[in-house]
């Protein structure tokens, strides 16, 4: 009985650790290598190939309100175009760009690499099923080194958590990097540029927060995306900060409900959820 109990305890411990690993979000830890930039640079990166692919394969009028990618329909020729675009970005001397051009560069690279990752392993039900990196308890794709920039092998986590988050410290980037999932903020229908990314950030934030997967009330209980839990530190550090952020974008009834929730001294803790199903039609 002791042996059985011991095995049961170990099994429970493994389950607890695996669950914690699954839901732990990476911290924003600066990779100093990428602080370099040239504020006087007038170089503009061409993202037209990425925009062509978005035009052809991104479905923006799905009745669910979630933009979907037609992965199944991507032709061999267009996949080669995507790979050519990623290779072109890998060849860019990103440290010589100005900050705004860098922001657009990293965002588009992240999203393009994510789409290529799905195509490489398609068909797949969820990006989480692509177990090419991580620990034994938490296999996933985000730590796999998928691109080489300026001689540095980089993962998706490197791009998001070691470059974009710590350098720009803008919580709206969570609406811009797309994880190929229904629960994720929409993949935008145009490429990010130095000129448009701030406006797209606000558009994406408004779309997400006012969609049920971003925030909603059910039986007077607040439900919100797990993004606001995983990255609460970026949204003010507590639930009040998250609600204050949401109120910048919330419309009509949601805004009224959020204000009432914020003013309630006895409010229940919000519940978080996230749909990892692949964002395809």
Keywords:
281 residues; single chain; two-stranded antiparallel sheet; alpha+beta; 43% helix; 3-stranded mixed sheet
Description:
- Helices cover 43% and strands 11% of the residues.
- About 5% of the residues have low confidence.
- By secondary structure, it is of the alpha+beta class.
- Helix 3 runs antiparallel to helix 4.
- The protein is globular and about 55 Å long.
Low-confidence stretches: 8-22
Share of β-strand residues: 5-15%
Q: How would you spell out the order of helices and strands? A: HHEEHHEEEEHHEEHHHE
Q: Residue share in helices?
A: 40-55%
Major beta sheet summary: 3 strands, mixed
Question: What is the domain total for the residues?
Answer: 2
Number of beta-strand segments: 9
Mean pLDDT: 93
Rounded Rg:
20 Å
- Strand line-up in the sheet with most strands: 7-8-9
**What's the total helix number?**
9
Termini separation (Å)?
51 Å
Structural class: alpha+beta
Overall form: globular
């Amino acid at each position: 009985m002791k042996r059985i109990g011991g095995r049961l305890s170990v099994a429970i411990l493994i389950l607890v650790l695996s669950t914690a690993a699954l839901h732990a979000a990476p911290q924003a830890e600066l990779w100093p290598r990428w602080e370099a930039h040239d504020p006087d640079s007038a170089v503009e990166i061409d993202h037209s190939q990425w925009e062509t692919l978005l035009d052809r394969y991104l479905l923006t009028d799905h009745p669910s309100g979630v933009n979907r990618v037609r992965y199944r329909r991507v032709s061999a020729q267009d996949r080669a175009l995507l790979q050519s675009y990623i290779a072109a970005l890998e060849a860019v001397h990103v440290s010589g760009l100005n900050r705004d051009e860098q922001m657009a560069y990293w965002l588009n690279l992240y999203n393009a690499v994510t789409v290529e990752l799905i195509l490489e392993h398609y068909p797949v039900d969820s990006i989480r099923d692509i177990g090419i990196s991580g620990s034994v308890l938490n296999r996933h794709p985000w730590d796999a080194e998928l691109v080489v920039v300026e001689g540095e092998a980089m993962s998706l986590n490197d791009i998001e958590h070691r470059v974009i988050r710590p350098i720009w410290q803008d919580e709206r980037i969570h609406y811009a990097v797309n994880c190929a999932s229904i629960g994720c903020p929409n993949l935008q229908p145009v490429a990010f540029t130095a000129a448009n990314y701030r406006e797209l950030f606000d558009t994406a934030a408004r779309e997400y927060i006012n969609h049920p997967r971003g925030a909603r009330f059910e039986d007077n209980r607040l439900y919100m995306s797990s993004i606001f839990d995983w990255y609460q530190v970026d949204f003010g550090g507590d639930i009040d900060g998250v609600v204050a952020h949401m109120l910048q974008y919330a419309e009509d009834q949601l805004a009224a409900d959020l204000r009432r929730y914020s003013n309630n001294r006895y409010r229940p803790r919000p519940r978080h959820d996230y749909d990892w199903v692949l964002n395809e039609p």
